[in-house]
């Protein structure tokens, strides 16, 4: 996620997270194209979403959430992010590149309410 975020500068990066629904753990990161081509908002390419969804399904997984970068602001959902949050069961992960070191934070967004959740990195 972080590497993809840097590669997409100056635009926001985006992608999808796949895993087993009952485990609530992302195991696959699908890099996608931001078809909005913007430094202020993102739109996941629908064809790439379909490809990721099919790949996850083929592995017995599902899409658990989405990630995107904030190029100049904190890793906190913007009003646009909240308005565009399509699924209350998803994890919304933000990568901020505003400071020298990247910051990764994850949220649930349900009915406009933002709740932060822990980010745990595990080695495989």
Describe the protein.
The protein has helices spanning 2-7, 46-58, 79-83, and strands at residues 14-20, 25-32, 62-70, 91-96, 103-110, 113-117. With 124 residues, the protein is α+β, with helices and mostly antiparallel strands. The protein has a 6-stranded mixed sheet with strand order 2-1-3-4-5-6. Helix 3 (79-83) links the parallel strand 3 (62-70) and strand 4. The radius of gyration is 14 Å and the shape is globular. The model has no long low-confidence stretch (mean pLDDT 95).
Structural class: alpha+beta
N-to-C order of helices and strands: HEEHEHEEE
For the largest sheet, list the strands in their spatial order.
Answer: 2-1-3-4-5-6
**Tally of alpha and pi helices:** 3
Measured on Cα atoms, how large is the radius of gyration?
Answer: 14 Å
| Shape call | globular
Strand content: 25-35%
Number of beta strands: 6
Low-confidence stretches: none
């Amino acid at each position: 996620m972080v590497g993809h975020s840097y590669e997409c500068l100056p635009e926001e990066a985006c992608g999808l997270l796949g895993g087993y629904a009952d485990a609530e753990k992302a195991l696959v990161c699908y890099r996608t194209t931001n078809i909005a081509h913007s430094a202020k908002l993102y739109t996941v390419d629908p064809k790439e979403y379909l490809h990721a969804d099919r790949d996850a399904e083929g592995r017995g997984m599902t899409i658990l959430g989405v990630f995107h970068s904030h190029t100049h602001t904190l890793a906190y959902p913007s009003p646009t992010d909240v308005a565009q949050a399509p699924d209350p069961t998803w994890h919304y992960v933000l990568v901020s590149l505003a400071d020298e070191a990247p910051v990764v934070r994850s949220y649930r967004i349900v009915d406009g309410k933002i709740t932060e959740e822990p980010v745990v990195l595990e080695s495989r």
